[in-house]
Design a protein that fits this description.
6-stranded mixed β-barrel
Length: 784
């Protein structure tokens, strides 16, 4: 075997370009597997450790008002380990910019008794010695350049307060800093969290000796479903708004959705790249065996068995896998650390990072590469079995040069030039190579179109939601529910084309054993600012009775048009209501139920009660509404658009990497196939040189062949790309947003241009192979 091993090294060196190209595809697949898998694993581990250190709550209860004595009763329940009351409310923050609207969530916090949702101190002190000292969440502090010792001005219940920053902290409840479920992305510059003492929160918000939220740690082994039901029954008289578990907490949900997304990426992308690498290797080994026909015959005559020779060629394939594994592990490990650090620093507010090497990923990397490459090598080396020593000493019989079917169409065939006739004949006589390159180009196009689609898909969510589904310019939220007369009051203060009242409350929606807490939005039946469409994209109008339900909620509850669901009210003295689903609607952002305003007020809330406004106005109305008592926040579509554009800037790096990966894929397929074709056709090209063809002329023949295959590959890639887009849309859609499985023509054109560039680069790289061919030697070897 020593002789075969030496020959193996020489063979690798001789075909080093093909070896490197195939190895690059393997490296990318394994790098994504290692980097994404380990980064997500480290993020998951870090999150659990962080939750453990800070004692993140197991359950959250939102109520209208609950006395301290009732909190102690909750703590005495047999399934509760600890319970703590707190006050939570949103208020505007005064800033130097008059036109800037910044909201903060104030949460009461007692440093001496607080044991749930502990702070992780980053700067300053944990103690709050007087009622005007606050802790500020880190992401908000960083975005607004807030330092320890700074003074913040807030407006609470119409009164202004100056608060001194005592510390910068991280908190497990705001690992992902989103204001609510309707926010597409975090905006730490315009929304933050301040933690104040209990006494200050109670006095300023008018809730002496009372709370409006309770957080709980449950005893180990507690059935959370049972605990939730018991708490809802016990606290009904206190006006329960919502009882939800840790898994439904917004920040925790978003982090785990990102983890699940990373897991999907680490499982799907490597398989795609390793499959393509295996196909390239299999074809490469098959062509090598065919070209080494005489050598294999000599080896068999000397006593080498079929198994030994097959192993010899399979070792070439395995070598690609092992080299790819080494570099895949190396690059993947380095990238995993950077990815995990990016998660905790830029996306999530996690102050710690537990970085660990997971050897199972290294073993998995080597195992995946070995399995794919060994199978590819064995498949490619199959022709070894058919080579007989005596037959191999004679030149292989040339293929029969029969006419191709297109030649029978005489009037059409004679219109082609000599060179084009050669190109068409070669394509139709080498169907396997033609199919392989065409499929490779179609896959390159499909992989390229995915990141381009994802960037536009998220943009489409924003555009669709805020310019087609909702067409208001501003949304106004009240600190507390108001009478509908507030519409007239606001109309007198601002210039507007239209103002519509909104009534929005969370309700638990149930269908059998399935349940989900969803915001029910009451709007006027003739609303001009909400535009509903059915799943068939037909415009529809909100009915007087019954509800519209977004597709996300319908899928979670497994309901459809015509079904009945139960709305469990958290409002005191209100019974649960069974309502019929009149229509399942398209809603790309968020998940809601919609009901006619007066019907909602009579069934679920109070007469003429509203919680906010939708305003259509071209003027800047924020300054006029900033100091109005009872108004919590004024949010504009423009503000949300700015946040979204910042998010797109972050995604550009990811898109660039994915496009580069697809480029390597396309380059490897075309380069390897073209080089193998050149090696096989040396006699043909030598004959053409004798006939007067230059090296450039021969290179042009190859260019024409690959141009035809590129066009067909792109045509084939269109349906493949559409299928992959549909799969990605389904896999990456979440409860909070729905990706539409439609890409614009511009996206397809961009992918086509990029694919052509990748193929062209591969063609340029093969020109050197043409230039270095010894045509006379090829003719001598053939006639010897």
């Amino acid at each position: 075997m020593r002789v075969l091993n030496i020959r193996l090294m020489r063979m690798i060196w001789k075909h080093k370009g093909q070896f490197v190209a195939a190895t690059a595809v393997v490296i990318i697949g394994l790098m994504v597997f290692t980097a994404t898998g380990m980064a997500v694993k480290n993020l998951d581990t870090t999150l659990e450790k962080y939750y453990e250190i800070t004692e993140f709550a197991d359950m959250f209860v939102e109520v209208v008002k609950i006395p301290e004595s009732a909190v102690h009763k909750i703590e005495n329940l047999d399934f509760v380990e600890r319970a703590e009351g707190r006050i939570v409310f949103d208020v505007p923050l005064r800033t130097e910019g008059d036109d800037e609207k910044v909201n903060v969530r104030i949460i009461s916090y007692n440093t001496e008794e607080h044991h749930i949702n502990k702070h992780y101190l980053l700067d300053g002190s944990l103690s709050l010695r007087n009622e005007r000292e606050v802790h500020v969440i880190k992401m908000f502090a960083d975005a607004r350049n807030i330092q320890v010792g700074d003074t913040l001005r807030t407006q609470i219940q119409g009164d202004s307060y100056k608060l001194e920053v005592k510390g910068i902290v991280a908190n497990p409840e705001y690992t992902y800093l989103m204001e609510n479920e309707q926010s597409l992305l975090p905006d730490p510059g315009r929304f933050g969290v301040l933690f104040v003492g209990h006494e200050f929160a109670q006095n300023s918000y008018g809730m002496r000796n009372s709370y409006n939220e309770v957080v709980l740690k449950l005893k180990e082994g507690t059935n959370t479903q049972y605990a939730q039901k018991e708490l809802e029954k016990m606290l009904d008289k206190y006006g329960v708004k919502r009882v939800y578990k840790r898994k439904d907490q917004l920040s925790n949900r978003m982090v785990h959705e990102e983890i699940e997304s990373g897991k999907k990426t680490s499982q799907t992308v490597p398989i795609i790249f390793l499959s393509v690498a295996a196909a390239i290797i299999s074809v490469m080994v098959q062509r090598l065996v065919r070209n080494d026909r005489v050598t294999i015959g000599v080896f068999k005559a000397l006593g080498y068995t079929n198994t030994q020779i097959t192993v010899h060629y399979t070792m070439l394939s395995l070598g690609i896998g092992l080299v790819g594994s080494v570099f895949g592990i190396l690059f993947g490990t380095l990238l995993s650390g950077a990815m995990a650090q990016m998660y905790v620093d830029m996306i999530f507010n996690i102050p710690i990072l537990y970085g660990k090497i997971y050897w199972e990923y290294y073993i998995g990397t080597v195992g995946l590469a070995s399995v794919f490459c060994i199978l590819a090598g064995l498949w490619g080396a199959q022709p070894v079995m058919k080579i007989m020593p005596a037959d191999s000493m004679r030149p292989e019989a040339p293929k029969m040069g029969k006419r191709i079917w297109i030649e029978r169409i005489t009037w059409f065939w004679k219109r082609f030039t000599f060179s084009w006739k050669m190109v068409i004949r070669n394509i139709l006589r080498s169907k396997k190579r033609f199919l392989f390159i065409t499929l490779g180009i179609s896959l390159t196009f499909s992989v390229t179109v995915i990141p381009l689609y994802q960037a536009l898909a998220f943009k489409d969510i924003f555009v669709s939601h805020y310019s087609e589904f909702q067409t208001m310019d501003y949304t106004v939220k009240f600190t507390r529910p108001q009478n509908e007369n507030m519409v007239l009051k606001v109309d007198e203060l601002v210039e507007s084309e239209r103002i519509e009242p909104l009534c929005e409350y969370p309700f638990e929606v149930t269908n059998g054993w399935k349940e989900k807490v969803v915001n029910v939005v009451g709007i006027r039946q003739n609303s001009q600012l909400y535009h509903f469409k059915s799943l068939g994209n037909d415009p529809i109008q909100l009915p007087r009775r019954g509800i519209f339900i977004s597709k996300g909620v319908a899928d979670l509850l497994n309901v459809q048009k015509g079904d009945f669901v139960t709305l469990k009210s958290y409002i005191p003295d209100r019974d649960d209501q069974e309502v019929q689903i009149v229509e399942v609607i398209k809603q790309k952002l968020g998940m809601n139920i919609y009901m006619e305003l007066e019907t909602m007020q009579s069934l679920l809330a109070d007469e003429e009660l509203i919680t906010g406004l939708a305003i259509e106005s071209k003027a800047n109305i924020k300054p006029e509404l900033e100091n109005v008592k009872g108004i919590l926040s004024v949010q504009s579509v423009e503000d949300m658009q700015n946040v979204f554009m910042e998010f797109l800037d972050l995604t550009k790096v990811t898109i660039v990497f994915l496009v580069i990966f697809s480029g390597v894929l396309g380059f490897a397929v075309v380069y390897n196939s073209t080089v193998m074709s050149i090696n096989e056709r040396q006699l043909e090209f030598s004959s053409l040189r004798v006939m007067g063809f230059t090296k450039v002329d021969i290179f042009k023949l190859i260019l024409k062949e690959n141009a035809i295959m590129t066009v067909l590959g792109l045509l084939m890639g269109l349906p493949v790309g559409r299928w992959m887009i549909s799969s990605v849309a389904q896999a990456f859609s979440t409860e909070l947003y729905t990706l539409e499985a439609i890409a614009s023509p511009v996206t397809y054109m961009q992918a086509i241009v990029m694919t052509i560039i990748f193929v062209s680069l591969a063609q340029v790289a093969t020109y050197g192979k043409i230039h270095r061919l010894h045509f006379i030697d090829a003719l001598k070897n053939r006639t010897a």
